[in-house]
Give the backbone structure.
Amino acid sequence: MKNVTDSFVSLGHWPSAGSFGFNTDILATNLINLSVVLGVLIFFGKGVYRKQRILSTIQNSEELRRGAIEQLEKARTRLRKVETEADEYRVNGYSEIEREKVNLINATFDSLEQLENYKNETLRFEQQRAINQVRQQIFQQALQGALGILNSRLNSKLHLRTISANIGILGVMEEITN
């Protein structure tokens, strides 16, 4: 152990203008060699570690990019499908609207035709009623006129003869029915 400490102490007191030579103390040279190797490993190992970290980051980025591309393709596929369905709904919607429009026009035409028929029937009914009223008024006027004529021309003798004739007709009708 004394040799190891002596070698450290002797490292600190090397002559600056001395000669170059080999150090035959194995323990001292091993420590120096180990520290040089460790320094070189640490210096160059950092680069390797950084390279590995950079490579793993790049690989992760590539995997994320592939995943994003797959998701993008799925989204595009879904978008195309939704656009197709929207077009179908739009076309079907327009067709349905046109069908409903035609149905509504036809129903309106049928309703108007039915209203026209009701109007014509009502007019015919009112016409017939007016004609019947006019006929009834004419019949009543004719009957009143005939009664007036009969009352003015009818005397009691003619009246008795008419009654007797009607009773005779009723008697004949009674015999026929029995």
